[in-house]
Specification:
single chain; about 220 residues; alpha+beta; 4-stranded mixed β-sheet; 4 strands
């Protein structure tokens, strides 16, 4: 069984993760580097664990979550597929079995809502974890928040957390937004399609996706 720690220690992982984030920084995107990868890995693992999946599947979800954006080192367009190819190289080099590699790269290749769909529990967990990482710590340039809606919405989010309830079969994204910085409607303007993706992912996990913003339930 290949572990996340071995994947993180692979030299190709370290270099390409840095390059991916550098490229997106030049293009004006929010942070998509190691911090984002670590958080998505942790959330994907937790989602799987809370729903009772095996430790092996939890580890694969964490690996997919960590590597899902590494393809931005090549190009932002179709970065899910590029990430999957790079992950394949890393995992094969580490001696992972082909089925485990397939589960990871399938999750990575389907994580972007514009090009993919949840195809497995692992992919569903990665989708929800990725789309739930909305927070001010991802903003690179505070001077741009008045001009860039993505920076403004991310900076307005003071707190975000994912709550999984196995008994009620719900997966909830709970956000606290400073509406003096960005109105709630702006969140939906840029994230509505992503929330629909989270709904599909939750359904594959036999759960219902919930969204709460400033203690108001929207989904």
């Amino acid at each position: 069984m290949i572990t996340l720690e071995r994947v993180k220690a692979h030299p190709q992982t370290r270099v390409f993760m840095e390059l991916a984030d550098e490229n997106l920084g030049v293009l004006g995107y929010t942070e998509h580097g190691v911090r984002h990868g670590k958080l998505v890995a942790k959330m994907a693992r937790n989602i799987m664990g809370e729903l009772g999946y095996s430790e092996a599947n939890c580890e694969l979800a964490a690996i997919a979550g960590y590597l899902h954006d590494i393809g931005n080192a090549i190009n932002r367009s179709s970065h899910g597929q590029a990430s999957a190819f790079l992950a394949y190289e890393i995992l094969k080099d580490l001696g992972a079995g082909y089925r485990n590699i397939g589960l990871v790269i399938g999750a990575i290749g389907n994580h972007d809502e514009s090009e993919g769909e949840p195809v497995s529990p692992i992919s569903a967990a990665v989708i929800i974890a990725d789309k739930s990482d909305v927070h001010r710590s991802r903003v690179r340039n505070l001077k741009e928040i008045n001009f860039d809606i993505h920076d403004r919405v991310n900076f307005a989010v003071k707190r975000s957390r994912v709550v999984v309830n196995q008994n009620s079969k719900t997966i909830s994204l709970v956000l606290s937004i400073d509406t003096r910085i960005s109105k709630v409607m702006e969140y939906f303007k840029i994230f509505l399609k992503r929330m629909v993706g989270c709904q599909k992912a939750a359904h594959l996990l036999k759960c219902e996706f919930k969204l709460t913003i400033n203690k108001t339930k929207f989904l």
